[in-house]
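Let's study a protein:

===
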Amino acid sequence: MTFPTNFLWGGATAANQCEGAWDLDGKGASIPDHMMGGSLHKQREFTKEIDLDKYYPSHSGIDFYHHYKEDIALFAEMGFKVFRLSIAWSRIFPNGDDAEPNEAGLAFYDRVFDECAKHGIEPLVTISHFELPYHLGEKYNGFADRRTIDFYVNFAETIFNRYKNKVKYWLTFNEINFGTLPFGGRSLLGIIDGKDDEQRRYQALHNMFVASARTVKLGHQINPDFQIGCMLAYITMYPLTCAPADVLACQQMNQKLNWFCGDVHVKGEYPFYMENYFTQHGITLERSPEDLKEIKEGTVDFYTFSYYMTTCIAAEAENGDRTGGNLFGGMKNPYLATSEWGWQIDPVGLRYTLNQLYDRYQIPLMVVENGLGAVDEVEADGAIHDEYRIDYLRQHVQEMDKALEDGVDLIGYTSWGCIDLVSGGTGEMAKRYGFIYVDKDDVGAGSLKRSKKDSFDWYKQVIATNGENLASRKEVLQSVE
């Protein structure tokens, strides 16, 4: 096996999906706190007024706020080298534009990071993971207003100074490329007035690029040892056929969704194909020479991404067989299996993606989200036999190993939802990713008891052998028989 000895094995969560305690200790409401949900496969409903008689999944999450010591101890038992988590902006600045931070919120993350240090776990912190304070959406429509750049940089500066000796690895925004799509307007950009068009969306995205670049420069000034990266949802695409029209359609979709944000973050400039797209679609961005200078000077140190599935693109797709995906679907690939949620499973695609990204950017890469969402059954004895999850993860680890053999500089892997948490898209608990089962259902009922799945011991073994032993308990028993 070729995993380096310092490879960062671990898992990933997001504050709005696990913390709960949405209004405790001075925390303000975030945009996710205004999103109802809980039904199987049904997208969450956004409400400007919170009706406490209804269920809002982010209000309680899995109560990591009160269970963090127990949860981090379980991560340590698995051998985590790194734990990716986010800081809830509205826990630090309840409205987002406050003059002073909330000390109780800062103190909470002190305790979390101290607990990680106690167990030898390196935090990987996402500064903004779909958790914009609701007030910033209501008053400014989030990043559609340039003033939000300063609010974000102030937030980043506050946590950089507070945790400069506790956190080394940072990510500026989660899955920033979803800002190119209509449904990214609210959750990512903070545009909540319903007036979401491309002109406004790309202007908001530009403002986020400036905020990210300023943050990178500021972070390096505060602590030169900081490593600050970007994070994209990489939706690997193949042409549905070898017809030139399908190949061209696939290339164009890749440029807009996968490459654009990465090119700005890593290369520090807008790519030619997007400048042409803006011209063709009548999009005129307010971009000062100073903005472009800051973007050029504030490039990231490493590139991270989520990878769950691949999809196919066709020039004419009206009558084709479609499939689902991580906020973005496409045409069905006849050579791939599909998960319960319609996401096509493609481990080899991860190797392809790692090679494609490293060839394009030549900076360290990290897979910070990957996993299988599935319905888990608890046996009468309390056991949870999730061999399907083990099989999914094993195949992806094997392909990461091959990418390392190819020469890719891959430095870490954090599986998504290492402990079960509420779905960001639907708020449901039925779609579980974790190595740790949390007793909670789609309407918020349950004891919140934590239980180990079979995948818990499997991942523990993977980390202990640095990716060498990928056999499951079931396979070991079968070999003995």
In short: The radius of gyration is 21 Å. The mean pLDDT is 94. The first helix runs from residue 15 to 18.
